[in-house]
């Protein structure tokens, strides 16, 4: 019976929760993915829809996910078990937990590959390999990396092992210290890079691209990608934030904490955009060139700016760390669930890790041996297909179910008790968002991307 399962995971202080949740949210999604999907979907209008999704859908659901976790105090699957009992609802709701564990494993499988690119670039930058290169030779560095399955697999395997190490020891031990130093460091370096972008003649052009909405460039698919990214970047819809919520102390205010995490996350994404797009225009590159965007623009900047070697090295190191503090939260829900079944933490971690690693081979091969048409799924390669399926389908669907569960299934009195919001008006605004606005937005965006409306 789920109520008899004892939480074995311990509890965090509010500061550790904020650091861990920010560490989970800020990652490759902000620095690598946000700029390239913004480029692919035409800029300003996409960014606007993304920001609206963060405010109207992401933040309300994040509050819901944290409160579910804190009330259930277990892994997402068993938290749902506790909450359905309390609400006398169907056990079928546990599907939120199961699909979350699966989504985490799937995301992890391509996330480690991109994190591996960052490790490779860290070494190239440290050896001065980016200095004095033109845009073409920088592009060649990236193309060569993708063409080498061995290199890709080694870096992604090392990154997977790094993640397993932290999760195996328990999330708090390593994470707390690392995140405290690294998050401010990443922020500082990004601020420096924005300073560099300001010196380019194309800075204003980049800012216009990011913030001037041109709705003629936005498609129904673009709106779905913006919604999916709001979930991806806030680590929502798959139980990561729910799991962290289950470690959150009783006294901390959920609303304020979530607002802070979402604010920092959005800020980092917009800063990354303000660095990358001016460089794109300065060198007449294509904003819509795809997943390589960050890896061909920033190296050009590091190659030509003063102090480019230490700054470039530090930057790719920080990106690797940011990815690290996110990847931990991708597998933690599954590992926590297995430990609640009585499996020791290390074997649980290794088991999930092995599954992610096996799947990651598919992503590695997508760029070389399996790049041919005969290997395509949904008209694209394995890497893109897994990214697309998780971010644009599984996370919004998980988020929809979470919104319905918190908004309609849980008792209002229980929800109020967890949230402890002093301002009744704000509570009602959140209530309308999670019961009505967020679910309708997800359903409408799904329907329109399928061409139903
Ligand atoms: N939020 C992380 C990022 O932006 C990715 C992530 C998604 C992490 C889902 C955990 C859960 O990179």
What does the model show?
With 453 residues, the chain is mostly helical. 76% of the residues lie in helices and 0% in strands. The chain has 18 helices and no strands. The protein has helices at 14-25, 28-40, 44-72, 76-87, 95-126, 135-146, 149-169, 171-198, 203-211, 220-233, 240-245, 254-282, 293-304, 308-340, 345-366, 382-409, 412-419, 424-449. Helix 3 (44-72) runs antiparallel to helix 12, helix 8 (171-198) packs across helix 12 and helix 15 (345-366) packs across helix 16. The chain is globular. Residues 24-25, 27-30, 107, 232-233, 235, 238, 240, 326, 329-330 line the site of phenylalanine. The site of phenylalanine has 15 residues, from helix 1, helix 2, helix 10 and helix 14.
Summarize the structure.
The protein has 453 residues and is mainly α.
Order of helices and strands: HHHHHHHHHHHHHHHHHH
How would you sum up the major sheet?
none
Helical run tally: 18
Distance, first to last CA: 44 Å
Please state roughly what percent of the residues sit in beta strands, choosing from under 5%, 5-15%, 15-25%, 25-35%, 35-45% or over 45%.
under 5%
- Strand segment count: 0
Helix fraction by DSSP (H/I, runs of at least 4): over 70%
Measured on Cα atoms, how large is the radius of gyration? 21 Å
Question: What ions, cofactors and ligands are bound?
Answer: phenylalanine
On the 0-100 scale, what is the average pLDDT? Answer: 94
């Amino acid at each position: 019976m789920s109520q008899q399962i004892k939480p074995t995971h311990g509890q965090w202080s509010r500061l550790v929760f904020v650091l861990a949740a920010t560490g989970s949210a800020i990652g490759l999604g902000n620095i690598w993915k946000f700029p390239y999907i913004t480029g692919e979907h035409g800029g300003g209008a996409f960014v606007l829809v993304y920001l609206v999704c963060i405010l109207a859908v992401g933040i309300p659901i994040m509050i819901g996910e944290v409160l579910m976790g804190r009330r259930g105090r277990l892994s997402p699957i068993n938290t749902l078990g506790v909450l359905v009992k309390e609400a006398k609802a169907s056990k079928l709701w546990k599907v939120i937990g199961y699909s979350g564990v699966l989504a985490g494993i799937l995301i992890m499988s391509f996330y480690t590959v991109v994190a591996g690119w960052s490790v490779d670039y860290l070494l190239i930058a440290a050896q001065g390999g980016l200095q004095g290169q033109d845009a073409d030779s920088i592009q060649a560095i990236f193309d060569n990396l993708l063409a080498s399955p061995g290199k890709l697999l080694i870096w992604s395997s090392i990154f997977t092992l790094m993640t397993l190490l932290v999760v195996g020891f328990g999330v708090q031990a390593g994470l707390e210290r690392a995140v405290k130093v690294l998050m401010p460091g990443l922020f500082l370096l990004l601020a420096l890079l924005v300073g560099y972008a300001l010196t380019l003649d194309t800075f204003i052009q980049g800012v216009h691209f990011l913030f001037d909405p041109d709705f003629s460039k936005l498609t129904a698919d673009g709106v779905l990608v913006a919604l999916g990214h709001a979930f991806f970047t806030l680590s929502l819809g798959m139980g990561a934030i729910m799991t962290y919520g289950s470690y959150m102390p009783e006294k901390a205010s959920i609303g304020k904490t979530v607002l802070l995490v979402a604010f920092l996350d959005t800020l980092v994404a917009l800063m990354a955009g303000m660095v990358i797009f001016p460089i794109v225009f300065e060198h007449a590159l294509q904003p819509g060139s795809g997943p390589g965007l960050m890896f061909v623009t920033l190296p050009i900047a590091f190659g030509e700016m003063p102090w480019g070697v230490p700054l470039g090295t530090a930057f790719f190191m920080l990106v690797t760390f940011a990815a690290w503090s996110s990847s931990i939260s991708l597998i933690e829900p599954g590992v926590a669930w297995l430990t609640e079944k009585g499996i020791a933490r290390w074997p649980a971690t290794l088991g999930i890790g092995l599954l992610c690693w096996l799947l990651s081979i598919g992503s590695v091969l997508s760029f070389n041996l399996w790049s041919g048409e005969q290997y395509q799924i949904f008209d694209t390669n394995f890497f893109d297909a897994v990214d697309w399926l998780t971010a644009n389908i599984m996370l919004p669907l998980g988020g929809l179910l979470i919104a319905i569960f918190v908004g309609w299934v849980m008792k209002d009195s229980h929800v109020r008790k967890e949230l402890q919001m002093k301002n009744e008006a704000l509570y009602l605004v959140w209530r309308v968002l999670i019961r009505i606005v967020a679910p309708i937005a997800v359903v409408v965006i799904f329907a329109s991307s399928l061409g139903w409306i």
